[in-house]
Structure formats: C-alpha cells, structure tokens
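Worked example 2:
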Amino acid sequence: MTGRRYDYGRDAMIGIGTPQANPTVEAEMRIILPPACALVVNRLTSASNDPMERLRDYIERLETSLEDFDTLRPDAYGFGCTGSSYMIDTDAEARIVERIQERLGYPVVTATAAIRWQFAKLGIKRIALASPYPPALSEAASAYWSGAGFDLVEVRRINTGSADTRSIYTLGSEDARPAAEAMSGLDVDAVLLSGTGMPSLALIDDAGSNGPAIFSSNLCLANRLCDLVGLPVPITSEWRERLAEACEPTKGKPVR
C-alpha cells in the first residue's frame, strides 16, 4: 500500500478495468471486497464491431485506458476481462502488464493471472470449465487453460444465443446453474465459471461441501487484489450478507 490516506478506502484504493458494456464486475467487486476498500473503475473501450478484436483491444490498449485515472494511483489494479487473455499471446500480455507496472508504479493483475494464482495457492490441477462464450472464444478458453498446464476434464458451454461476446452481459447466475450442477459430480479439483460479465456469486454461495469448489473470474480477481494490498483474502461468510442485500427484492418501494 502507498501510505496515503483517504476519507473513503482506508484499507486500500482498488482500481478495476471492466469492458464497456459489462454490468457485473463492479457489482460483484463491491460485494466481495471489504467495505473499507474504495473501488475506482475505468471502462475498457473499443469501437470494433468484431467481438474478438474488441477483446484484443481491451488488453493491447490498456496502458492508454489507464490514462483515464489521470494522477490517481490505486494501490492495485485488476483487469476485469477474462476473454482478452484468451485472444492474445501469453508472453505479449505479460509484457504489457510489466510495462504498465514499471511506468505507473502499482501492481496490475489480469483476471486469468488471478485465477492461476488462486489455483496454485490451493494446489488445483484438474478443472472443469463453464464457458459462457460463442464457440470460437470457448475453444480459445479451452486452449488457454490446457496450455497453462491444467488437466481440463470437461468444458460446458453456456449458450448466450449470439456470436457477440456482449451477449454474456444478459445472463444471470441461473443461466449457469445447470452447467455448474452438472459438473459438481465430476472428479475435479475445481469448477471454473469463466467470464467477468456473468453473475456467479449466488452459485458459489450455494455450492455444497461434497462436490468440487466453484470459482469465478471475479472472485479470484478480488481475492488476488486483496492479497496484493496486504489484506486477508475474503471468505464466503464475509460477503454472503452483502450478496443477500444486493439480491433482495425491493420491499414495498417503487422501482425506478
């Protein structure tokens, strides 16, 4: 941490980059991260009509995107787009991250790097993947995790009804529940719900103790960011109440 003090965010100032139409990253980060962490967000943007090109733009233009923070220097920054890592060479991504860290002076971690950190910490090797992507990106995701040294036992696509990756943002956690439940009986160390745009905390909260653990891109990213700023990694019981409050129906109040 930098030692600077803010009225808000006494524990840490956490930066997050999220794809331009993604409605989920900020909401889940505010649930998972400790309340004394401030969250500052920049939108990852691209004008391309090609969904795969947009994903590449998000990571390849990250250094420019971070100029939106002007003089603000968060204590750590999380790149909240898993799909971008599936579309770019791993070494090229590492060079981008290293260059930004050297220039700006704070740690930067991608969602995929956070997942790899989480799995290494827990000794997870055999995984199943829930993939809420069109076929081409789903294949790239499978190749990424196999290439990262994991034993990828099964991949289940969650149909979004479109080849446009932005269609993931219309999903709810219930859309992923059949895939998560089907994979709960597999002989794997963990089930990974890939994609920062698909809500997943309810599924993680509901997971039983008999099957494999369930992880998501956002959960692993939040955990790694806490680790980077020297905070304890949040456990489910710490954010379960905040999740319930966020999902609780409005009681007698007009919906605006």
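The first strand starts at residue 12 and ends at 19. The CA atoms of residues 20 and 43 lie 5 Å apart.
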